[in-house]
TrEMBL record:
It comes from Pseudoxanthomonas winnipegensis. This is DUF11 domain-containing protein. It comes from the Bacteria. Residues 1-32 form the signal peptide. Residues 370-441 form the GEVED domain.
Amino acid sequence: MRKHFIHGWAARGLGLALAAGAALAPMQQAQAAAYATGGTGKYRNEILWLTWGGGVNGTDGVALANGAQTTATLQVANGQQIQVTCTLSNLNGALSSYRSGDYSGDGLEDMYNIDGTGGANNLVAGLATAMTSTASFDIDCSATRNGASYPIPGLVIADAESLESTLDGNGVPSEYIRGTAAGNWNILEMFAGNGNPYTATKTTNGGSQTMEFGPGGQGGGTSPVALSYLTFTTPTATPSMSFAMRGGGITAMSIGLLVPRADYGDAPSSYGTAAHLFYDWVHGNDSGVSASGTDINDASFRPGGLSPLTTDHLGTVGPDGEPGTSSSDNAYGIAGANEENGWPTSPAINAGSGNTVLTRSIACSGTGTVAGWIDFDGNGSFDSDERATGTCSGANGTASLSWTVPNDIQAGTTWVRLRYAQNASEVASPSGTATSGEVEDAQITIAQASANLVVTKTNTPAAGANDQANDTVVKGSSQTYTIVVTNNGPQPANGAIVRDPASSGLTCTSASCTGTTNGAACPTQASGSALLRALQSSGGAAIPTLPNTGTVTLTVTCTVN
């Protein structure tokens, strides 16, 4: 969603912007969030900025105290609402809401704004200190998905205004921004501005790491601006960060979000809705920020940035974010065939493969679980006996899935669903929501069984299948006829039906299955009157398993009338 913000108060100083790896919930003093609609920032479509000061779009210049909150609620998928609430605590100093661009040297609104830069900017997303003061405070966030805890992977901080370039008498930057949390900081993006040096420092203390900006590059035109991404040591639904800001003028801080997207299955609604939430970017490592300070506005410095997702997905290309389910005839959804390519196009599945094992190698990337369903019987649903699972072998890997094909397999058009997730329990069902990975649906055709069956019948089996020239029968005598069913392939003919209606002049009294070869199986009615009745009925006797080169031998005993 994109909302417009109310502009307000003008001042000068320095600023800080913060962004979180998810979306946020309703609070006091901030009622909305907004993506920037303008500016040169690379991640206008990724960072969702939060507002402070009350009202739908935020209000400039409102005093803030401990307990002030900012929030946003996002519908990231059908029925999937993510909320993140961030609360101000342990405040030492004064803070007010602030709009970047109130000071002519501000740089953040050149990167991220609504309606323009300077006084035209309507993105009111700042927390500002009083003039010539220092403030320290904590930001405590809580993230949920449909009311349940939802871990977020990290945060972004940014200099939201203009840092002075000087040091005080003790060698401390006259203006600085410090952010401390349990995780690892990397510079995400840099706005060169006037090209002046801009110092960043990174230090580690136990499990926490601190990123400090300052001294900056204020002086002569628009000041440089830096954004830094914090990866939490462990993704958490309740992150807490500590901040300190010092300004010769005003300090400011903004909060934003890196929002997950959703991938949906594309099969008809009778198969149920499968959705996967995912972050479609991966943050990179910068070229290095030292504990003694690094000029990150130097041409030799390389920010880490965000790059497309390269792991935890099906096929060779990551998932496409979608607003909702989108059933299509070819099940390629929004992004097309190039994105949904986890299911192999060959070999074909044949209707005669019942009671055999079908194995397919599924392309994937990651170490999570791949689950697959094939609607073998074409009933419009994925049944429990139509599921197979495997583990992805790693980057650009595969997962081996093996199905025991049910005997009720039907020829015709049907559907396959593949799901990948880091948490195996989230893909135990063909429908539902997973918090990682991807779903792909494919429309496939189960071909008619292709098998060359040969049936012979003789009462002189020792002489072969052909009738003999001197073969005669005598009234009242008993004759035994041998029937041999052979599958010359290439496909199995499981479930093949054999019929042997009674001939005039014969009264048949019994039948039996006397032998099989190469994995074939006798009919269920293996012998006696039950087998005879089946052979002589219109329904025939079914051979449950008849693989390529398999044979089944039946004998029928009759009396000549």
